[in-house]
Specification:
oxidoreductase activity, acting on paired donors, with incorporation or reduction of molecular oxygen; Bact_Lucif_Oxidored; alpha/beta; TIM Barrel; oxidoreductase; 8-stranded parallel beta barrel; 11 helices; disordered N terminus
């Protein structure tokens, strides 16, 4: 088994707070319980020694969180050390001033633990909700990202754009504890997004939900090349990997336990997108096979997958999404424990 050089990889978990029925019991928990369990998961993650906890943003009734900063502030109050990030903030439809000020406030509450992972998000319901047009998808992302970075660098900002009112010597308050908030861009699979993250000199978090890890290597190369050409130092160009994860004592046990929940998750996500496809067990076996990027298995197999990807991308952060498909909280707890007590020591 290959080993990692230098400081290795920061390991954390993230949640999108999806609310789905448990396919085994048929029960669906409410939003209050979902949020309570997320706060509990963050406390457990910190106690176990994980480095980061992330919370996603959606604006639909089958997800419990529309405001990551508010939930992360509650988590900040219940923890002391774990870093707190959005996963992701839908930057196309958020006002960058509000986003920055919310996370600067979170940074003050948490004593310097806040980060922003900005992305496009998987759904488009926030566009009509906040009065934006999906035809402006790319332009909105670029303009809002540009403003967010200026706000992070300067206390007083003058700025002109197309989609929001101009700023003239605007005072941006509060300022974070950290000199600047760490900002990442979430990248799905497009070379343009990778190049943009590099040019801007922000971290790039790749969402890898399956398939051959080699597919994503070109994105990392494009990102680093664009970053260096834009004059950013290599140590600023950090790569993170995020992905669906399920651990059990053995790979067979992990697949047997996780299959009903994973199939359930894709069933309702596909339904939300207007597709009616169901995942068969043989499809799942293929998706979870050793050479793919899906992090399902015993600790050794998951470590092998992380290390194989590290050889390809040289990433410094891995965030596991472990609570999807109506998975009951006792299984989420078990995954946090296995990540911390089995996977982390093997990586180190």
């Amino acid at each position: 088994m290959s080993t990692l050089k230098e400081n290795g990889i920061e390991i954390g978990i993230y949640t999108l707070a999806d609310i789905g029925p448990d396919p085994v019991t048929g029960k669906t928990i409410g939003m209050k319980q979902r949020i309570d369990e997320m706060i509990e998961a963050a406390k457990l993650a910190e106690e176990a020694g994980l480095a980061i906890f992330g919370v996603g943003e959606h604006h639909r009734l089958d997800y419990a969180v529309s405001s990551p900063a508010v939930v992360l502030a509650a988590i900040a109050n219940a923890t002391n050390r774990i870093r707190l990030t959005s996963a992701t903030s839908v930057i196309s439809t958020l006002d960058p001033v509000r986003l920055f000020e919310d996370f600067a406030t979170l940074d003050l509450i948490s004593n310097g633990r806040a980060e922003i992972l900005a992305g496009r998000g998987a759904f488009i319901e926030s566009f009509p909700l906040f009065g934006y047009d999906t035809n402006d998808y790319n332009e909105l992302f670029s303009e809002h990202m540009d403003l967010l970075l200026k706000l992070n660098e300067n206390e007083i900002v003058s700025w002109d754009g197309k989609f929001r009112s101009s700023l003239k010597n605007a005072e941006i308050s509060p300022r974070p504890v950290q000199e600047q908030l760490p900002i990442w861009i979430g990248v799905g699979g497009t070379p343009e997004s990778a190049a943009r993250a590099g040019r801007l000199g922000v971290g790039m978090a790749i969402a890898i939900l399956g398939g051959d890890p080699m597919r994503f290597k070109p994105l990392v190369d494009i990102y680093r090349k664009a970053g260096l050409e834009a004059g950013h130092s290599p140590d600023k160009l950090t790569v993170g990997v995020t992905g669906h994860t399920y651990l059990a004592e053995t790979t067979e046990a992990a697949k047997d336990e996780f299959y009903p929940y994973y199939a359930n998750y894709w069933n309702y996500v596909n339904r939300q997108r207007g597709m009616g496809t169901r995942m068969s067990r043989s499809d799942f076996e293929q998706m979870a096979s050793p050479e793919t990027a899906l992090f399902v298995g015993g600790p050794e197999q998951v470590v092998e997958k992380i290390l194989r990807q590290h050889e390809l991308y040289g990433h410094t952060r891995f965030l596991a999404q472990i609570d999807i498909g109506g998975l009951p909280f006792d299984k989420v707890q078990k995954n946090i424990e296995l990540l911390a007590t089995e996977v982390m020591p093997m990586l180190k």
